[in-house]
Design goal:
Number of helices: 3
Largest sheet: 4 strands, antiparallel
Strand order of the largest sheet: 2-3-1-4
Helix content: 25-40%
CATH architecture: 2-Layer Sandwich
Radius of gyration: 14 Å
Length: 97
Amino acid sequence: MPAYIIAEVSIHNPAEYEDYKKLTPGSLKNFQGKFIVRGAKTECLEGDWNPERIVVLEFPSVALAKAWWASEEYAIAKALRQRTAHTKMIVIEGYLP
């Protein structure tokens, strides 16, 4: 079953965050991950949610998504993101009809 990592990111060091954006794509390869949404413009339809940046990643399973997040391949990029931005991140199972 597919899985998705959804992140809401508030960047407080934009220059360094650019380095994070360059490092992350290569870290996804071994975990069959891919970007579905990467920082596109958002529009609130209900409530008062106005995130600065939303990222959605797709993986073949929750296990692979969590393995990527905890991986050596992602460790340097993750530390850089944690230093340059505040992030709320979840993993969720997708749906197959």
